[in-house]
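Technical annex B. To support the medicinal chemistry partners, we prepared a structural model of the target in complex with iron/sulfur cluster, based solely on the information shown next.
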Amino acid sequence: MRVLRTIVQTLFLAGVVALLARGLSGLTPNTCETYCPFGGLVAIFPLAKYRAYTCALTEFNVALLVSLIVLTFATKKSFCSWICPLGTVQEWIGRAGKKAFGRYIRVPSMPDKTLMLLRYAVLIAVPVLTYTVWKYDLGFRAFDPFYILFTWGGHETAAFSVYIVIGVLAAAFFLPFAWCRYLCPLGAAMDPLSRAGGLRLRRNAETCTDCGRCDKACPHAIPVSSVEEVTARNCTNCMECVEECPEKGALELSWFGK
Ligand code: SF4
Ligand code: SF4
């Protein structure tokens, strides 16, 4: 499963890098934001009110948003660990950090839970600022590490934007998926659907030996060994816990109960 996931991640990352190369060489006006489902979310309000798209957003962004909703309903947040190129880059950096420190660094529960609320603040702030302060322009570009990185500092970014990318990538080394965990508005938007998602991971207490290897393997700090079913909203179905589990059948996947 890990090999398959790495292949899928690499293909999506290669796709966005190829798009970047084509954009830089002037072969296409499209950028990574053309393929961003979060754009679909930002587009909803002006589309409903004015029947117009905001700035560079198109119906394709809305179609991607709908696809993401269906995917999340079917597989929870698999998008984050299988498709999102920014997630892939962070994961690979996080693995380097794990090697350097010998384990994933964890933030204590209380500050961790508090910081996770920031994602909802970003989720609300981006559309509100887009429709008010930024006057329907995509002002979030200057703060969006996905856009800044995969357009290589595209238009409407600022001098500070590069520091945002450096900060996000550096943070991923010390704290796995720091951006996704604390600031990603798309991840926050997926939370409610993710909880209802059809792809479920259960721990079989009869075959589990409580060795705790799954806990150490989880880049999202989910205490897999102490739950019957992984219902944490930040589980991305990366299957790292399953890969590490030495007991056959101790962790089992089901899809809508089957
Ligand atoms: S619980 Fe398992 S599948 Fe979910 S994020 Fe952690 S390691 Fe990945
Ligand atoms: S790695 Fe497997 S056997 Fe060990 S605690 Fe986790 S589920 Fe149980």
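Notes passed to the chemistry partners:
The domain at 199-255 is CATH 3.30.70.20 (Alpha-Beta Plaits).
The pocket of iron/sulfur cluster (ligand 1) is lined by residues 201, 217-218, 220, 222, 224, 230, 235-241 (CB under 6 Å).
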